[in-house]
Amino acid sequence: MTFDIVTIFPAMVEAALAAGVVGRAIEKRLLEVAIHDLRDFTTDRHRSVDDMPYGGGPGMVMKPEPIFKALDAIETQRGAPVTVLLMSPQGTRFTQRDAERLGSRPHVVLVCGRYEGVDERVRSRVDEEVSIGDYVLSGGELPALVVLDAVARFVPGVVGDDQSVAEDSFSRGLLDFPHYTRPAVVGDLRVPDVLLSGNHQEIRRWRKQESLGRTLERRPDLLEHAALDDEERMMLEELQNGRIAEWQRGKTK
Ligand code: 4FV
């Protein structure tokens, strides 16, 4: 899978891609990420990528032509259909489901806005406009890195154990269960006995219960689309029939 990132701050993006799972995947050539400096696609001696807004108003707007030229070059270089994503607060909210869907595309291009945003005509070359949340950032680079990281996890081999991707939060629409590691006791904070029991049947049930309880407590909206199995459906019913209070009490002990 290839990613092409169009930005006026290539060094910022480069640095973020040098670490961790994504950095290793690039080293192992499981992913190819090309970073394009938008100024390389300008024609004036000031390498201008922005200009004043028609109709007046504060701030500057990103010029369309440098972005068009960058997309032309990328499409020519990739020689195959690419999926062009524009990062913007006006986009559809990015989800794990989108990450999984985009993970099967051969070529994804991420266009990073700056200033007040891009000239509206850029949208004529965009397949999807993507928002990572209802807040305004100073640029599209961080959202682009968020999307790249989430999508890259679906590329085989990127995450050591593909199982963990399948079990990732949201993969089945539920919040993750609590994780613990050594030592078993820190001050008066103990690891739940069930996890020390070695009883994998009980551990599996406890983790389901925890996922459901957390989701019901913190993100009940997710339950509408969650893919629950029979056991989880029964557990959820129990939790909804008041056992949630008991479950919550269990937390405070
Ligand atoms: C954003 C978001 C975001 C808006 C103006 C960049 C900024 C500036 N992108 N999800 N939230 N973008 O705030 O994706 O150009």
Description:
With 253 residues, the protein is of the alpha/beta class. It is built from ten helices and nine strands. It has helices at residues 10-16, 20-27, 64-78, 96-102, 141-152, 162-166, 193-196, 200-218, 220-223, 230-252; strands spanning 2-7, 32-37, 50-51, 61-62, 83-93, 107-112, 128-131, 185-186, 189-190. The strands form three sheets. Strands 2-1-6-5-7 form a five-stranded parallel sheet, with helices on both faces. Helix 4 crosses helix 5 (141-152) and helix 8 (200-218) crosses helix 10 (230-252). The radius of gyration is 23 Å and the shape is elongated. Ligand 4FV binds next to strand 5.
Please sum up the structure shown:
By secondary structure, the chain is α/β, with parallel strands linked by helices. Helices cover 41% and strands 16% of the residues.
* Share of residues in helices: 40-55%
What low-confidence regions span 5 or more consecutive residues with pLDDT below 50?
none
Roughly what fraction of the amino acids lie in strands?
15-25%
Tell me the structural class. Answer: alpha/beta
**Secondary structure: number of strands:** 9
Q: How large is the radius of gyration?
A: 23 Å
Give the ligands present. Answer: ligand 4FV
Distance N terminus to C terminus? Answer: 48 Å
The major sheet is characterized as: 5 strands, parallel
Number of helices: 10
Mean pLDDT: 93
- SSE pattern, N- to C-terminal: EHHEEEHEHEEHHEEHHHH
Shape: elongated
User: For the largest beta sheet, what order do the strands appear in spatially?
Assistant: 2-1-6-5-7
